[in-house]
Each structure stands twice: as C-alpha cells, then as structure tokens.
Amino acid sequence: MNSLNALPLLIAAVLAPLAQGVINRTKAIVAGRVGQPLIQPYRDMLKLIRKGAVYSETTSWIFQAGPVAGLAAVLCAGALVPLAALPALAEFRGDIVVIAYLLAAGRLFTILAALDTGSSFEGMGASREAAFSALAEPSLFLALAALARRAGTASLTPAIAAVSARTWTQAAPALCLVLGALLIVFLCENSRIPIDDPTTHLELTMIHEVMVLDHGGPDLAMIEYAGALKMWVLGAILVGVALPFHSGAVWIDTAIALAGIFALAIVVGLIESLMARLRLLRVPELLIAATILAALALVLVRR
What we know:
Elements: H1 7-30, H2 40-50, H3 61-78, H4 95-116, H5 120-151, H6 156-161, H7 165-189, H8 208-211, H9 218-242, H10 250-274, H11 283-302
C-alpha cells in the first residue's frame, strides 16, 4: 500500500457534496433559474453541524446510532472502491461482495432508526425503502458478478482495471447491460427520480426523506453526507466501467474519471428535469428489469 491508495477515499470525502451541487445547478439551468451555488451542500451541512440535536423520549440509542453507523458503513464501502488508475485504500479477494453488503448495512441502520421513532409515517417510508432495496440488491450483485467474471477476479480494483477499450470491443453488449443495470441501481440507491424524489413534500409518495424527518442538527448532517458519499461510491463504479481510459498517467486518468462523475451528476440532473417520478407500483417493474439486464450480462460473459 502506498500514499496513492488513500486518494480515492480522500477525494470522495472532499468532493462528494459538490456532485450534489452540480445536480441542483443542472436542474436550475434546465428550469431557467440561476439556482443555488455549487457549494450550497457544504453550507447546508455546516449549518446543521452548528445546531443542536433534539431527541424524542420515545426513541432509544438506536435512533442516535443510526446516522453514525450509516456514515461509517458508507465510508468503509468507499475505502474499497478505486478511482480510475488510483487503487482502493483496501483490496482483498471478495471485496466486491463486501461493498454491496456495506451499502446494505448503512441502509439497514437508517431503516432501524426510522422504525425506532414509533411513527407509522416513518414506518411506511422504511417499509418502502426495504422493499425497493430488496429488489435492487440482486441487480447490483449480478452486475458486479458480471464484472468479476469478465476480469477473473472477485476484487473490485482489478475488476475495474481490467475494463479497457479493447474489452469494450470484445464484450460491448455485456458491458452495456451492466451499465444499464448499474444506472438503475444508482438512481434507486440514491433515492433519485424516477424511483424517488429527494425534494418531495407529498406525504404519500415520500420514501427516503420520510425516514429522516425526526433527525436534525449533526445527525441530519451525517445522513446528508452519507448520502453524498454513497452517490460518489456508486458513481465511481459506474464511471469506471463507462470510461475505461488507461493512458499510463495517473493524474490524467484520475481527471477523466472525475469529469465522468460530474458528467454523471449532470445526467442525473437532466433525468430529474425531463422525467416524472414513476408510480410506486411501477418502481418494482423497473428494478426487476435492472435485474434481468444484469443477469443477461452475466450470461454473456460466461459464454
């Protein structure tokens, strides 16, 4: 391990909120507005950190531990994800499976914290989150399995490093299917349109936001920061497959990967500006379609 191994996690920790700022600015431009500054997510988190946290007497330690455990899980997942030519901080055989479970663990703690409030409203959001996540996880596992099978390794860093321009010429159909599945999982895991609307205030359609209504101050800041990091982690995997540039110059490849992540943020902003949110009954169909795409990709790489 050298000093470069810590850079992917450090870059993610610093720039993850900026990607959300790019999404907000893209949506504002499409709507013909000036929009918030790109650094507004940083300002919002600093404002929350300065405030105090208020806890209901009906909640237990689970409610207070939820934001901390969720952020810790995402940080651990980030330590296993590379960024272009920069290897991950930690790498071992089977880490491609651990990443999925760490993301699931962070979501589990958020769900438990919501249920701990005893609110039927937050329980409704938690049940929806659990149901959609259960449908999205097979897609993520199968997509990662297709990458691992193609590279011949169960570690994410060499699996992404094995994707190159030559790989795309040999296995373009399978990689396109993987990208399609990963994009749907990306939108679902980050509660974006067409799965969920992060800015909605309509009670009957809220999913993720309803689970964090009782959180405030530093706890809400940790939840928002964990959400930004999760978006960066999944985006880094998606961009690693979509933009397999290996020039031999670490900083050039890293700059291209960063440009790809922010380009992905622009795409998310365009999706949220041009598409409507799906009806709740239609969301499972989309997630099942993602699973089918990932399964087909796995079949193709095993031929």
